[in-house]
C-alpha cells in the first residue's frame, strides 16, 4: 500500500487516502505480459492514427466520435441520453422532446472541443483542468458545486446516500489537495515513462485524488485523449476509453481499488492497455467502414443523380449532421426550399435517409447507415449495467 499511498486517520473517525507522488516506487515492473500489452496498444494506436490520416474531411468524422464519447462518458455517471438525443438537441436548439440530462452530454462535447483548441496555447495543467470542469458543470446537475474550483471539503465514494463511514473509498482531505495536485501537475509533464503507461498512471492518480465535488470521472476520461493529442501520438481525437470502461465498469473500479489498497499498478495498467488496444481496433474498423461506405454512397449518388453536385454536397453534410430537416438542408447548401426537399426525397428513395417523425410537416430525417456505425447494440437504451459509484461530499450530496 505504501507504494501508492496510505490511509491516515482523520477527525471524525474515518481514514482518508493520501497518494504518493508519481511515478511509483518501486518502478513499474515491465514483465513479459505488460511489455506485450504495451506493444500491442502502441501498434493499435498507430494503425488508428494512420487510417485517420486518410479520412476525407476528417473533422466531420471527429465530431461524431466526440459526440459518441460524450454520450458514453455521461452514461457512466448515470445519464440516460443517447447519441440521437444529442443530435436532436443540436437540430432543435430549444431542446424540446429531449431528456433533461442531454445538456450534460452537450457540455462534454463542448469541453472536449475546448480542451483540444486550448492545447494550442496552454499545456495540459491544473489551470486547463479547472477550465474543463467549469464547462462540464455549467447549467447542469452539479452546477451548484463550485464548477471550475477544486473542492474545499471532504468527499467520498460509495453507494448513493451512504455516509462517510460506509464509503468504499475516501480521497485525500481538502487541506492536502494543494500538495497532491502540485505533485500531480509535475507528473503531467513527465516524459520518462512510455506514453501509454504515463496516461494510465495519470488517469488512475486523478481518480484517486478526486479533486472536485462532482465531475471527476468525466474530467479523468477527458485527460486520456487530451494527453495523447498533446503528445501528438494522435493527430485527431479518435480514441475514447469510455466505450471500454462502460463495458467493464465493475473491473474498472476493482482495478483502481487494487492500486490504492495493494499498490497493484501493474494489474491496473494491464487492464488499461487492453482497453487502449480494444478501442483503437474498434475505432480503426469504424474509420475504414466509413471510407468504404462514403465511396459507395458517392457512387450511388453519381449514378442516380448524374451531374448533381448538390447531392454530393448533401452527402458530405450528413457526415457532420446525420440528423436533419429540409430547412437545415436549405440553409447549409444555400439552395431553395423546393430544391432541398427534392434532394432529401431522392436520398430517401436511395435508402440513405429515413423519415423518423411520421409527420406531414417539420419532418426529420436520419442517415441510418452512418449512425449505425456509432451505435453498437451493447450501449443502446435498455442495456442493464451495474450502478455507478457515486461521489459524495460532507453535505451528503452525490453525483
UniProtKB/TrEMBL annotation:
Q: Which residues form the signal peptide?
A: none
The residues the record assigns to binding ATP are: 77, 210, 214-221, 252-253, 261
Q: Which UniProt keywords apply?
A: ATP-binding, Nucleotide-binding
Asked whether the UniProt record includes Nucleotide-binding among its keywords, one would answer yes
Determine the domain of life of the protein's source. Answer: Bacteria
PROSITE patterns, A to Z: FIDO
Pfam families to which the protein is assigned, alphabetical: Fic (PF02661), Fic_N (PF13784)
The answer to whether the entry has keyword RNA-binding is no
- Cite the SUPFAM superfamilies for this sequence: Fic-like (SSF140931)
Residue ranges constituting the Fido domain according to the UniProt record: 124-274
- Any one GO molecular-function label of the UniProt entry: ATP binding
The residues responsible for catalysis, as annotated, are: 210
This one is known as Cell filamentation protein Fic
Taxonomic placement: Bacteria, Bacillati, Chloroflexota, Chloroflexia, Chloroflexales
